[in-house]
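Slide 14.
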Amino acid sequence: MAKLVTNPELAFRLARAIVSDIALYNQKKVREGIEKDCIFDLLNDELQEGRELFFTRISPDVAEREHLYDRAIVDVMIKQAGKIESVIWK
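Slide 15: predicted structure.
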C-alpha cells in the first residue's frame, strides 16, 4: 500500500489533480452544469468518486483535510469556467 500524504500542500496538489481529471473527462457536463447552475448535481457521482479517492490517499492528520478537496473544486472547475455564460456569475 502506498504511503499516505501528510503534507497539506501535496494533499492540495493531489486534490487539484483529481478534480482536473474529472473536469477534463467531463467537459460537456461542466459546461452544462455551469450554464444551468446544476454542476454539483450533474457531476455528483464523479465528484464523490474523486473525493473518496482523495481520502484514501491523504492522512487523516492533515490539517483542513476535509476542505482541501472542496477548495480544489472551486479553484480548478468553477473558477476556470468563468467564461461560460451563466446566471451564477450575475
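Speaker note: The mean pLDDT is 89.
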